[in-house]
Amino acid sequence: MSEKLSRRSFLKGMAGVAGVTAVNTLLGGTAAFASDASASAGIYTPGTYTATANGIGVVTVTMTFDTDKITDVVLDVSGETASIGQAAADQLRESLLAAQSSSIDSVSGATITANAVMQAAEKCIAQAKGEMTMETVTLDQGSAEDWLGQEPDIDDASITDTWETDILIVGAGNGGMCAAAYAAQNGLNFRIIEQNAVVQDTRHWYGAIDSTEAKKAGVTVNRKKLLAEISRYASGKCDQRVVSTWIEESAAMHDFVSGILESDPYNYTCVFTAGEEARWPESEDSPDYMFPEQEHTYHGSEIPRNEVFLQYIQGLGYDVDFNTSLVKLEKNEEGRVTGIIAQKADTGEFIRINAANGVLLACGGYPGNPYMMEALDPLGTSVTTACSYSPSDKGMGIRAAIWAGASLDKEPAPMLFDRGLVAPGVDGGYVENAAAFGGKAFPGTVRQYNPGTQPFLKVNRKGRRFTNESSPYNDTSYAAGNQPGRVYAQIHDANYFEDIQRFHTIGCSAMARNVPGMMDSQIEQYIEEGLIFKADTLEELADKLGFDAQAKATFLVTVERYNELYDQQSDDDFGKMAPRLSAIRTAPFYGLWLGASLLTTEQGIAINEKTQALDEDRNPIEGLYITGDMSGSFFANNYPCLMPGVACGRTLTFAIKAIKQMGGLE
Fold first, then answer.
1. Concatenated DSSP letters for 338-386?
2. Per DSSP, which regions of 474-580 are E strands?
3. Among 91, 404, 432, 546, which has the minimal tally of Cβ within 10 Å of its Cβ?
4. 3-class DSSP state for residue 414?
5. Residue pLDDT, tens place only, 476-518
6. Burial class (CB in 10 A: 0-12, 13-18, 19+), 282
7. 60-118: per-residue pLDDT in tens?
8. Can you tell me whether residue 431 is helix, strand or coil?
9. Does the pLDDT of residue 301 top 90, yes or no?
10. For the chain, how far is it from start to end, CA to CA, in angstroms?
11. Residue 437 gets which letter from DSSP?
């Protein structure tokens, strides 16, 4: 992209050609253009037309016409949920071709995506009829060979509007909405933009240290030990000053958040988890896992926290500029970030947003970008079978920050949950998927099978046990990286509910024992879907799981050995603590195949304790602040899942910290 992109020059080059295509933003989507200006009389001007609409993310529809009919349809639904919207792509495409119009039936469970497809298809048809024209500028999406790509060079002639503000927040997720609420409460001059049409999913669990809830419960944390534990988990690759910012300031963050949620008209009640409920079971065979952190959540909230924050800022006279995506950061001659160039998803117009006091990027990680995943985290990619991430998280904020001179952490830190339920024979890693961004997606159709974390017997495709199943969430998935297909089977008998009560797993895996009937209903559902198998004998179960003759024989010996270890209450093979052993003797027997479910990535832009982005020499980039999954310097290797809520707690704390810095509040 060596030449500047100008709407004016682009249209001049395309003069006389009908059906100018829709915008193709940094968010994804491939704009197409190939029409015939010398069309004969008919319903349509022959050619290929593209348009977008907002579903969960941005949906792009490309339709090809001859004079009388629609001849081809291509859908880009890579911004939609993999197991829902993306899975409906083929059916929606065939429906459009069959109907020869945008009026088609929705797809059960994928209504949001289907409606967006219909809206975009209607725009394509309007273009083909000459009732509408749309303009395009193609921006670099990155590639398998070069995930970073090149920073777009937008000509000033392409910029149709300029906004002025003191503080600009990019991203209306957990970090961005908390930052906006704090800025609004303090009467600051700010704007917040979001590439999608709605605020993003709320992560309701957050970690805070020595909060008012902790004080009411009489719980305190050894902060020195906590700092050392997080550093140990990251193999020393974190910045301890950054970690200390969360430890020291998260209590104030909780006071701010609870001050809104627990007041009229919401009146939510905070549920505080610490003490015995949050303690890793003690055993002489158990590793010395520390759970020093305290979890806060709001159960039964009718309105997610991010939507509460939206209502809160609207009540104070602010709002979110939706459908507005980051294209690039802008800097002055001294290297200070002065604002951004953004793009409107519906019109393709470019906007310059000047931010006098700074820009806060809260754009998420890169789990939805296969180019970045394969290049930056090949191991995490290889063991993943399912995804529970936001499909909009494609690392575009990270790319923009790097283009502006920021430094990316050198170590991946994926958030992997051992809950990627798949059918027999499915391997870990990507499969080809034309509907997905980058043409690849993970094969699982279930976002997370929560009971997958329970420390039941786990065996590889050869029927052999291969690890201590009582471990942090990602450990079994990583151990499976050395096994055939990078997947494994989980086995238990009819006494599973009694077993999980004794196991007493912590964090979100505790849902399996604390939510009545959850595991029962999921087992029933996934038996119907052919993903969990129930059998009256272990031999029958082995057959249903797909074990061949040798693997079946090994599997039966493995179960017999596991029962022996249970009887002696000592795992002499892998050292699992006695309370987490279980017998497999009572029919019916259950089995299922698992890999990792990728929730997000935590490998982000290096920051200092003020949340300022750092360059490669570890100097702060003035005017640029980072929070959330795209911020670095905190995690390495993986996410410390035995400290539930630490990532979201860090996100909210740093969001407030950045606003304090830009707003002159400290």
1. EEEEEEETTT--EEEEEEEEEEEE----STT-HHHHHHH-HHHHHTEEE
2. 488-492, 532-535
3. 432
4. strand
5. 999 999 999 999 999 999 999 999 999 999 888 888 998 989 9
6. exposed
7. 888 898 889 999 998 888 778 777 888 888 899 999 999 999 989 888 778 889 888 99
8. strand
9. no
10. 42
11. G
Q: Are 285 and 576 in contact (CB under 8 A)?
A: yes
Residue 630 has pLDDT above 70, yes or no: yes
CB-CB contact of 231 with 241 (8 Å): no
643 pLDDT band, cuts 50/70/90, is confident
Cβ atoms of 295 and 279 closer than 8 Å: no
Q: What is the DSSP string of 590-630?
A: EEEEEEEEEEEE---B-B-TT-EEEBTTS-EEEEEEE-GGG
Summary mean pLDDT of the chain? 89
Say if residues 18 and 170 touch (Cβ distance below 8 Å): no
Least Cα distance to 138 among 305, 23, 297, 306 occurs for: 23
CA dihedral (451, 457, 460, 466) positive or negative: positive
Cα 509-512-516 angle, rounded to 5 deg: 145
d(CA 235, CA 399): 26
- In order of 69, 143, 147, 366, 381, the CA distances from 375 in angstroms are 42, 10, 8, 11, 9
For residue 512, the surrounding DSSP H or E stretch is helix 511-514
Spatial separation of the C-alpha atoms in residues 232 and 607, rounded to whole Å: 19
Helix (H) or strand (E) holding 542: helix 538-545
Across 434-574, where does the E strand assignment appear? 440-441, 457-459, 488-492, 532-535
Q: Which residue has the tokens 């497999």?
A: 584
Q: Within its chain, how far is the Cα of 431 from the centroid? A: 18
Question: What distances in angstroms separate CA 338 from CA 205, 271, 328, 331, 333, one per listed residue?
Answer: 34, 41, 11, 5, 10
Output the CA–CA distances (angstroms, integers) from residue 524 to 58, 461, 492, 520, 529, in the order listed.
34, 24, 15, 6, 9
DSSP state letter for 201:
P
Burial of 231 (0-12, 13-18, 19+ CB in 10 A): middle
Q: How far apart are CA 328 and CA 35, in angstroms?
A: 31
DSSP state at residue 507: G
Question: Would you state the structure tokens that stand for residue 479, as one six-digit string?
Answer: 């151990």
Side chain identity at residue 351, one-letter code: I
Residue 206 has pLDDT above 70, yes or no: yes
DSSP 8-state symbol, 575? -
Q: Helix-strand-coil percent breakdown of the chain, rounded to 5?
A: 35, 20, 45
197 contacts 54 by C-beta, under 8 angstroms: yes
141: tokens are: 């999406």
Distances (CA, A) of 530 to 205, 230, 485: 32, 40, 19
Beta strands in 190-273 (DSSP E): 190-193, 206-207, 271-273
Query: What residues pair up with 331 in beta bridges, in sequence order?
Result: 337
CB 418 within 8 Å of CB 453? yes
What pLDDT does residue 339 have? Answer: 98
List of E strands, 128-263: 159-170, 190-193, 206-207
Over residues 589-616, the pLDDT tens digits come to 999 999 999 999 999 999 999 999 999 9
In the numeric block, the tokens 């016409």 are attached to 65
Helix, strand, or coil (residue 37): coil
Beta strands in 77-153 (DSSP E): none
Q: Is the pLDDT of residue 1 over 60?
A: no
pLDDT at 23 over 70: no
